[in-house]
Write a structure and sequence with these properties.
By secondary structure, the chain is α/β, with parallel strands linked by helices. It contains 14 helices and 17 strands.
């Protein structure tokens, strides 16, 4: 049987190990790790030892591990190998192998120690080879302390820039560099223009309220965003979903149980923004045909502090045929159709092909204020909706009907994919 002993190390130039681990290193023959790890431990390896570099793509590394056949491979990894570390990947690839993990402090632990901060409630976010989603979620949820693992793209400067763009300026940000190396490590507050050595990590700490109890614009998440606070398309108030209708629409979408929302015909982005603000776990994909709306959605997202809304400009049906575009779009389990341009049947057909069983589609339809003895007059969009649902085998739920002031009534229509 193949056995992995995964040993965590810091950036200390002369690592010291417990006697049991040092004895294991002295008797093993096959070792592995990153090139930086090799530099740190090369002088401790026995003569004739085999070293397997961990480099991407990892498939080549797995093949060399399997070629060992049986016996022990000592793998060196940074910090705690089970904390967003290599041992997690290794266990996934070699589920039947024996494994032992010898951890060292991880970088965020060390940064908290250097700052003398209790970190039991720290929100951990890894941006190492990952998108911004979890940092965005932590900010929207107003996490009081966020520990962030960085990479060469998600640098401290990029992180602070994103926080500022979306109004999260009430955080103090600290950077830890080369932690564990007594000669080179540095811990300092972030400052614009500072040069930061790799590897590094970031701690963002939300400031408390002032003595008068004043709050910043981002200290409380709001429930129900007034339409008057949005930047509008050509100043047209009718081109935005009104707040009461928007909240009922989100309720119909059942978003606490959903992972990905598609907002088709997003226009000003009001539905996307309200959904992102209230349900930060959601991935939101907004589609809009008007090019000028990309800037409007961006401005509104920054105004309300909702990073992470992915905007796709162009005709929805055409975008769905573009493999390059759709490869970057997360598959939905909830879809809101805010505008269809007369293509409702085609849009719903493409949506249903991507929704799982139990996925939902919601649309709002304006009805006539004239009501006969049984039902209100059905607008063309409602007729198209009914026809599309029948053709696609969708199960319709009873619509909700709402009327605001003297405006025509609106029906909130919901259909579910059968499963």
């Amino acid at each position: 049987m193949l056995t992995f002993v995964v040993v965590g190390i810091t950036d200390a130039p002369n690592p010291h190990f417990a006697p049991e681990v040092a004895e294991l290193i002295g008797s093993a023959q096959v070792f592995s790790g990153g090139r930086r790890h090799h530099e740190l431990v090369a002088h401790l390896l026995p003569p004739g030892a085999q070293w397997i570099d961990i480099v991407v793509p990892l498939q080549g590394v797995w093949e060399r591990y399997r070629a060992v056949g049986s016996g022990t491979i000592v793998v060196f990894a940074s910090g705690d190998p089970l904390f967003y570390g290599f041992a997690v990947t290794l266990r996934r690839e070699f589920p039947d192998a024996a494994m032992r993990v010898v951890p060292a402090p991880n970088s965020l632990q060390m940064l908290a120690h250097r700052l003398c901060l209790p970190y039991h409630d720290m929100r951990v976010v890894s941006l190492t080879g990952r998108p911004w989603h979890e940092l965005d979620r932590a900010l929207i949820e107003r996490a009081p302390m966020i520990g962030i693992l960085t990479d060469r793209d998600h640098t401290p400067a990029a992180i602070v820039g994103r926080m500022r763009d979306y109004g999260y300026t009430d955080y103090s940000v600290f950077v830890g560099e080369r932690l564990g190396n007594p000669e080179l490590e540095r811990v300092r507050p972030y400052a614009d223009g500072m040069e930061v050595a790799m590897p590094n990590c970031v701690m963002a700490i939300r400031e408390r309220r002032g003595s008068e109890g004043a709050t910043t614009a981002r200290q409380c998440r709001r429930y129900g965003l007034p339409e008057g606070e949005f930047a509008l398309l050509d100043g047209r108030e009718k081109m935005i979903t009104k707040m009461p209708v928007r909240l009922l629409t989100l309720q119909a979408l059942d978003l606490p149980r959903r992972r990905v929302l598609w907002d088709i015909g997003a226009c000003t982005g009001s539905v996307s923004i309200e959904a992102r603000l209230l349900f930060p776990h959601l991935r939101v994909e907004a589609f809009e045909v008007r090019p000028e709306c990309e800037d409007i959605i961006g401005r509104n997202a920054r105004r309300f502090g909702t990073p992470g809304i992915n905007v796709h400009i162009g005709d929805f049906c055409t975008l769905c045929e573009d493999a390059a575009t759709m490869s970057k779009v997360a598959a939905p389990d909830a879809v809101f159709i805010g505008g269809h341009g007369g293509q409702l049947a085609a849009i719903m057909s493409k949506v249903v092909n991507r929704l799982p069983a139990g996925g939902v589609v919601v649309m709002n339809s304006v009805t006539s204020a004239v009501v006969d003895s049984l039902t209100p007059h059905r607008a063309p969009s409602r007729q198209m909706w009914d026809e599309a649902c029948r053709a696609l085998g969708l199960r319709q739920e009873p619509p909700m009907r709402i009327q605001l002031n003297d405006n025509n009534p609106i029906e909130i229509l919901k259909a579910v994919v059968a499963g």
